[in-house]
Amino acid sequence: MIAVIGDIHGCFLTLQKLVQKLKTDFPGITIYSVGDLVDRGNFSYEVIDFFITQKLTFTAGNHDLMFYYFMKHPSSEMGTTWLYNGYEKTVASYDDHFEKLSEHLECIINSPVILDLEGCLISHAGISKYYKKFLNSNFSFLENVLRNDLEKPHGIIWTRDELLNVGKLQVIGHSRVNDVTFKKENNVVYIDTSAYSGNKLSAVIIDEGKVAHTISISTNPKDIE
User: Fold this and answer.
1) Rounded to an integer, what distance in angstroms lies between the CA atom of residue 179 and that of residue 167?
2) What class has domain 2-223?
3) pLDDT means over runs of 10, the chain (225 residues)
4) Alpha carbon separation from 41 to 13, 37, 112, 136, 181 (Å, rounded)
5) What residues does each domain of the chain span?
6) pTM (2 d.p.)
């Protein structure tokens, strides 16, 4: 049994409350996230630092990687795209924490883009049907293919395509939904419930390849005001 948290987008106070509830309701549970830790909300620095100190794993999202590439390779396509995607509050959150910036950027770039776990696959935006030709029974080979396609619209951090039924549950964020939504035909659960817009931050409990529980916390207004 594991827990997977949706897109956080700097909503640190909401994240803290959700993680505490997960730990209270499911003692000892391993917690993951589908990424997009940064941008739009007020506390991107605090979110990443929390993941590091709590030793939580996330799959890198498009906002996380735009942040990294802008700081490390500012003229890259991924880097320049960040300037149109809610970067301002992320920059502001590091005003008094510049000494942690390098550590946080390394955390982002060293995070996987896909996690192949016993009961599910976790990624930010999911595996598009474009990748059907690459599919076999072992998903680890996809890591290099997916990393080479990071900037492409069908890639695993950007895609809005119909997702591939890979034979096990995919847990993804990126595509916003009002409530956690399961699509049976693709065996995909969508868990980005738009915390930064004031809706809620959600997590799913995965047990034996299925969604066993859903937990949501309404966004704390201080995260986004």
Assistant:
1) 24
2) alpha beta
3) 98 98 98 98 98 98 98 95 93 96 98 93 95 69 79 94 94 98 97 98 97 98 97
4) 10, 9, 23, 39, 23
5) 2-223
6) 0.95
